[in-house]
Amino acid sequence: xDTADLEFTPEEMSRMGRVVLEWCVEHVAALAESxxxxxxxxxxxxxxxxxxxxxxxxxxxxxxxxxxxxxWIPRSFTTPGPGYxxxxxxxxxxxxxxxxxxxxxxxxxxxxxxxxxCLSQVEGNVLxxxxxxxxxxxxxxxxxxxxxxxSTFAAxxxxxxxxxxxxxRNGVLYRSREGHHSIDKAARLAGILGDRIREIAVxxxxxxxxxxxxxxxxxxxxxxxxxxLVVSSAGTxxxxxxxxxxxxxxxxxxxxxxxxxxxxxxxxxHMVPELRPLLAGLSRADSLSxxxxxxxxxxxxxxxxxxxxxxxxxxxxxATAGYLPDPIDDDLYDASRYGPELSRxxxxxxxxxxxxxxxxxxxxxxxAEKRALALQIHESLAQVPGLQIVAPPHLSLFAxxxxxxxxxxxxxxxxxxxxxxxxxxxxxxxLSGCTIEGRFLARICVLSFRTREAQARxxxxxxxxxxxxxxxxxxx
Length: 476
Description:
The chain is α/β, with parallel strands linked by helices. It is built from 15 helices and 11 strands.
């Protein structure tokens, strides 16, 4: 055998594909009965024991898959499971796995239009769909990214290029206290250092206060600085709060600032017409980051960015070189013009295929259902003695804590942590928490396509039962 030959025969590839598919299908079929959180308690020691040198000779596929599916994958959060209410669920539609198989097997280069024109158009179509769902104008352009962090980075760069020019050091960015941490990371990567990032206060529902925003902008102008960018949230991670997008858009228009909306979690609720009032002002943004791996239920690794004026995005990212083909006509989509990547995977297919298979109506109905289920859980938990919801759900995420007469903030935080752990340890539902102003809060986020009525009822029941048990212990 030629030791340099890396090719498999068609028969070998078929056999390997069948073996992998059997493991994957069995895994998905078992999700409903799998623990909502795998055993991660002893993971550090296990990870240390996994360290090994690269094998000099190849190993059989079957043994490698058995190790993956039986030992390593179960030791993780069951993010695709129906009881995953922690952080922001994705779910992972199976057609996207098929799309990735096709994309990775055909291995076409879609970083520039000339290398794969039709595949580039597929990605362009996907971005046009998203543009229409968000009611952005025809002038909008965008890019598919690995996730919201890279989308925000590309938007900050575009805003910086357009509004600060060479006066980078004086540029000031504004975000709410509840803004995602990726905003600060993106700003630093774009050359906006921490002393030029302003944290704006929030109201009692954790929404950015426009009056404080205006005051901060005025104060920075008095200092001779250059305010240029406001980042608001269409659904924060801690509490699901939606900032007053319309009012902030008005402020940005008056002050001639770029308005970027972080819609990574909540933006896709806008594709449901009856839910658009919850996100009023979203379509006025200068740029919008979205995560199809959240709101469209795709596997992790799929983000998106829209910029209202596509030429401003191209102006900050388009580049050429002697080894690249001449630019194409503006009406055709070339990914290299609208983002920082040149070599990149063909991300468009992982969105295009499920939309084609399901149709938009079915996906839209699933998105609407998730908010309805969150409201159902909220209504149930609002009746539970000793459980205080800190703000109503704007979309499909809300936070709460345990409280009782005479309890200190520290005692409430400890009891709330215990609640999250007890509910999760029951194995049907996984919750997560967050800390705001030193207080620990439990949180529920409904956004997995596998979460249906039964799981919503189970979530509410387990939280109510464990709340009663903890409060009874605190009273003794």
